[in-house]
Amino acid sequence: MELKNYETVFILTPLLNETQMQETVEKFRQVLKENSADIIHEENWGLRKLAYPIQKKSTGFYHLIEFMAPTSVVDVLELAYRRDEKVVRFLTTALDKHAIAYNERRRKGEFKSQAKKEEVKA
């Protein structure tokens, strides 16, 4: 069984409180673990403004999960997203070798340090 790297971003409705948001994220984390996915990295981007209104909402809670799993897991995860009314939008992408290298560098903070160096020069 071949494992691939994936990255999924989902937006939750802004009507949730912090506890409900964490429970929903944990539910999707559990879906991945039950289907033998290995979670590599996770980021909570918090409440952000949407580019355009979706379901009459202009903000949403963004969450990113990077994981390694068999290809069949994506269908199960996206079905869970579709069944949950708290999810406004989602996107799951397969990562190529360049995206994997970029994510590793981003996690190490290489890009933040470069931005700080540029600020100091200016």
Automatic annotation (TrEMBL):
Database matches in CDD domains: bS6 (cd00473)
CC annotations in GO: ribosome
Gene3D superfamilies: 3.30.70.60
Superkingdom, taxonomy of origin: Bacteria
Signal peptide: none
Residue spans crossing the bilayer: none
InterPro entries listed in its UniProt record: Ribosomal_bS6, Ribosomal_bS6_sf, Ribosomal_S6_plastid/chlpt, Transl_elong_EF1B/ribsomal_bS6
Keywords linked to the UniProt accession: Ribonucleoprotein, Ribosomal protein, RNA-binding, rRNA-binding
Pfam family, one: Ribosomal_S6
PANTHER family in the record: MITOCHONDRIAL 28S RIBOSOMAL PROTEIN S6, SMALL RIBOSOMAL SUBUNIT PROTEIN BS6M
Protein family membership: Belongs to the bacterial ribosomal protein bS6 family.
HAMAP family attached to this UniProt entry: Ribosomal_bS6
Function: Binds together with bS18 to 16S ribosomal RNA.
Name of the protein described by the UniProt record: Small ribosomal subunit protein bS6
Lineage start: Bacteria, Pseudomonadati, Bacteroidota, Cytophagia, Cytophagales
Primary gene name: rpsF
